[in-house]
């Protein structure tokens, strides 16, 4: 579910942005909707050094005593929790956008009508997405590298990268189900072409709920995870080297 929420960055978030005021500094410069995705990269650039230089030393020294501040699974779990927050914030912002559209009589406005609400309202959900990436994606990368056997590390890297692709497929399935159920309910499709008449906020709440369930399942599974210690890894590597040396003698 983490990557399902992540998929909204370049789909529904962009569509949201296209309906809002996007002028920057002057009315002559209009921010392209898709360019807001750069905020994710910017947030990651800020979050990763902050995590390594400030968060980890502080938590290690004053809270946990763990060499990494928090464990890899705790880092991934933090990112999953942030993805719940991201979906909830997106739902709240969309609810406000719909209220503004209704207030100005734009629910059935002409195609391309701009809702008088600044696109910068979307910054929090993009920023939280970047922080979630910095915790979850980087945490998964380290987990697969650190905890996988050396012979399977390349497969581990491929597995963590494939998660993003799988999330896109799952996202398509979720949208298809939501569209089908909402149309049968008689209230019209939640994700129609006219966002001012859609129920995108409810869709985001569904994502938040599904992400919360996913987070609970993750916690249950993580409780049974046993870390492969550095000592075990080093012993195995030394044994292989020793065996090879004995064979040559």
UniProtKB/TrEMBL annotation:
Belongs to the major facilitator superfamily. Proton-dependent oligopeptide transporter (POT/PTR) (TC 2.A.17) family. Gene3D superfamilies: MFS general substrate transporter like domains. It is a multi-pass membrane protein. This is Uncharacterized protein. GO terms for molecular function: transmembrane transporter activity. InterPro entries: MFS_trans_sf (IPR036259), POT_fam (IPR000109). It comes from Linum tenue. The keyword Transmembrane applies. The keyword Transmembrane helix applies. Keywords: Membrane, Transmembrane, Transmembrane helix. The chain crosses the membrane at residues 29-51, 72-93, 157-182, 202-221. It is found in: Membrane. GO terms for cellular component: membrane.
